[in-house]
Design brief:
Pyruvate-ferredoxin Oxidoreductase, domain 3; six-stranded mixed beta sheet; about 20% strand; about 180 residues
């Protein structure tokens, strides 16, 4: 079973991102879950979202997991939350930051010895979508790091998911996904 944990603040799109990822995965015949845990349900409060993916029905509905991937879409949470909690030896961390991977790891000792990838999803979102909602760029970075799906297949499915939005926003999200895919280190 593949498990993903998202760390963000309410309003940054982690729940929507987790649900969008689940929607894409569900089109391939896999079983999938997407859910969230809110401490305080107000904009800006720290929160987590989760995905599980498997070939068979997923009976586990707990928030506890030993994630294969951890997405941190608010860079401050690297310092205020233990994003490495319950991580496995081979857990991959994709973290939104303006710092290089080396600078980030040096500034947060918990990340030492972990597989850490960085990309500035907030900057990408601001420059493409016009708002600091870094969920779709994070998914683009995930497609690159995981190799789960071809980026064109993923973007086609995300266009379908985002179709209820104005075309200008859908197009901006496609650019954001591609940029994060290209820029993640």
């Amino acid at each position: 079973m593949l498990e993903i944990r998202w760390h963000s603040r309410a309003g940054q799109g982690a729940v929507t991102g987790a649900k969008g990822l689940a929607d894409v995965i569900s089109t391939t015949g896999k079983e999938v879950q997407a859910f969230a845990f809110y401490g305080s349900a107000k904009r800006g409060a720290a929160m987590t979202a989760y995905n599980r993916v498997d070939d068979k029905v997923i009976m586990n509905h707990e928030k506890y997991m030993e994630p294969d991937y951890v997405f941190v879409i608010d860079p401050a949470l690297v310092y205020t939350t233990d994003v490495t909690i319950n991580g496995k030896e081979n857990t991959k961390y994709i973290i939104t930051t303006h710092m290089t991977t080396e600078e980030l790891v040096a500034s947060q000792p918990r990340l030492e010895g972990k597989e850490v990838h960085t990309v500035d999803c907030i900057k990408i979102a601001q420059e493409t979508i016009g708002r600091a909602i870094p969920n779709t760029p994070m998914l683009g970075a995930f497609m690159k790091i995981s190799g789960m799906y071809d980026i064109e297949f993923f973007k086609e499915n995300m266009q379908r998911i985002l179709a209820k939005l104005p075309q200008k926003i859908v197009d901006a999200n496609m650019i954001a996904i591609q940029r994060a895919y290209d820029e993640v280190i």
